[in-house]
Design a protein that fits this description.
Layout (H helix, E strand, L loop, with lengths): L12 H8 L8 H12 L6 E5 L5 H12 L3 E5 L10 H14 L6 E4 L3 H4 L9 E4 L5 H7 L11 E4 L6 H11 L6 E6 L2 E5 L5 H8 L2 H15 L3 H8 L9
Parallel strand pairs: 1-2, 1-4, 2-3, 4-5
Antiparallel strand pairs: 5-7, 6-7
């Protein structure tokens, strides 16, 4: 398990999680701990770039850690209007949650499309978290943000082995990549580093495919309202998809 060591002010992961867990979202405690762990590992004064913030569940985790490190979180989200994304209403919730968590001076909202601003971006950051639109084209474009990262930097991807578009993008663009090494996952959240991968690193990606298939079968059972089957066969006792 990741280390829940103290930040300079004494804030533990459990305190960070207590603040974040009040916010609706699809990030589990284990995934939040992975974000917390790698944000804590950054030097003081560093920055994290987050793609896809929704109501701020993950943003608060990152913000609470980076506030203690006198760092920055760039939260990139266009907050598109419409029933699927929530638009202004979701942005209002995000901004309220950031204020309530006390990280409004640490988190800088960049209300724009990640694919639009990437090429002109000129602010350094040392960690990348991708949880934006989950289609193949957006995700694979978001992976290109790693060109801004220093060697060895962490790249975390939510729904990496649960979303069809993200998993396909990982197989197509990460598996053959010469500068991304797969490390491990927490649920569907994968940790990569900007490093040269070995053959074993590439094989570890392929070994996650049975977990992806399991996630898709569970998703199908839930759509068919067969939650009982998902519980008995797969131990998935939740009305929500695997994430």
């Amino acid at each position: 398990m990741p280390d829940s060591s103290l930040t300079p002010s004494g804030q533990t992961f459990e305190e960070v999680w207590t603040a974040a867990d009040q916010i609706p979202g699809w990030m589990t405690k284990a995934q939040a701990e992975m974000l917390d762990e790698h944000a804590r590992s950054l030097p003081d004064g560093s920055a994290v770039l987050e793609i896809g913030s929704h109501q701020g569940r993950s943003t608060v985790v990152l913000g609470r850690v980076m506030r203690e490190k006198k760092g920055r979180v760039y939260a990139v989200d266009p907050f598109i209007d419409g029933k699927l994304f929530g638009g202004r209403k979701t942005r209002d919730a995000f901004e309220a949650n950031i204020r309530n968590a006390g990280v409004e001076d640490t988190v800088e909202l960049v209300c724009d499309y990640s694919t639009k601003i990437r090429k002109s971006w000129d602010k350094p950051f040392q960690m990348l978290y991708i949880d934006g639109k989950h289609d193949y084209w957006t995700y694979t474009d978001d992976l290109k943000w790693r060109v801004h990262l220093p060697p060895g930097a962490p790249v975390l991807v939510h729904d990496c082995f649960a979303s069809f578009g993200v998993t396909l993008g990982t197989l197509a663009k990460v598996l053959p990549a010469k500068d991304l090494r797969y490390v491990r996952r927490a649920g569907s959240m994968a940790l990569f580093r900007v490093e040269k991968p070995s053959r074993a690193d590439r094989l570890r990606i392929l070994r996650e495919l049975p977990w992806f298939v399991r996630a898709q079968v569970i998703k199908g059972l839930l759509r068919l309202r067969l939650r009982g089957v998902a519980r008995v066969v797969f131990g998935h006792d939740s009305p929500y998809d695997v994430y």
